[in-house]
Amino acid sequence: MSDNNMVAVMRLLQFTDSAFPVGTFSFSNGLETASFESIVTDAASLESFARSQAHQAATSDGVAALHAHRAYLRGDYKSIQDIDRYLIMFKMNAEARMMIKRMGKKLAELGVRLFDAPLISQWLKDIKEDKVPGTYPVAQGLIFAAAGVGEKELFCSHQYGVVNMVLGAALRCVKVSHYDTQLILEKIANEVNDLYDKVAQMELKDMNAFYPELDILASLHEKGNMRMFMN
Question: Is the domain 55-220 a CATH 1.10.1510.10 member?
Fold first, then answer.
C-alpha cells in the first residue's frame, strides 16, 4: 500500500467513525416509531428495516453523493448547488430534511477546518445565507473528494453510516444484541458491490426513494410520543 493510500484509508476511517461529530447518533431513521408500533421487534425485522433504509438511501442520497464528488473533482460549483437543491426535494418529511441539513452544515464546517478547499468554503457560505440547503450527502461527496478518497470508498462510507445509524438506535429501543446488529451489518455489507454498480450508473433524474412505509414512519415520529431521538 502506498503512503497516499494509507492516508486515504485513515481519512475514510475518520469520516466513517460513528464518533465523527456530525450528530448521526441523534437520529434513528424512523426506527424509533417502527419499534413503538411493533413493526421492528427482533433481529429479523430489524434486518429487513435496515436493508430497506440502505436501499432507499443508496438510490437517492447515494446518487447525490457520487455526483457531488464528481462535480468537486471537475471544479463545477454550479452542479454542486444543483445537486444539493435537487436532493432536498426527495425528502418528503420534515424530519428527514432537518436531519440531512443539520448534519450537512456540521460536516461542511468541519471540512473548511480540515482542508484548504475553496469550493467547500463557498458552499458553507451559501448554506449560511440560505442559498442552498446544505445536505449531508452532498457534504460527504465534497469532503471525500477534497480528502483524496475515491467514490467507491465514499459509497461504502455512506452505506455504512445509514445502516449503522439504524443499528445503533436499535440497541437502545429494540430487543437485539450487539451480536445481532453485527451480523446484520455483515449481511448488508455483502450486498454493497452490486448496489454500487447500480447507483454509479444513475443520473440525477434517475434518483428514486419509493419506500412509502419508511416515510410514513418518519412522519409519525414528528408528532409521536417517542423522544429518544431527534424529530
Answer: no
212: pLDDT strictly greater than 80: no
CA angle (88 as vertex; 29, 188 as ends), nearest 5: 40
Residue 91 DSSP code: -
Mean pLDDT of the chain: 88
Q: Which of 183, 219, 212 is nearest to 98 (CA)?
A: 219
Whether the Cβ atoms of residue 229 and residue 28 lie closer than 8 Å to each other: yes
Give the confidence band of 33 by pLDDT, cuts at 50, 70, 90.
confident
Domain edges within the chain: 55-220
Question: How buried is 22 (Cβ within 10 angstroms: 0-12 exposed, 13-18 middle, 19+ buried)?
Answer: buried
Q: pTM for this structure?
A: 0.89
What's the pLDDT at 13?
86
Q: How far is CA 75 from CA 39, 72, 88, 102, 118, in A?
A: 45, 5, 22, 25, 10
d(CA 182, CA 184): 5
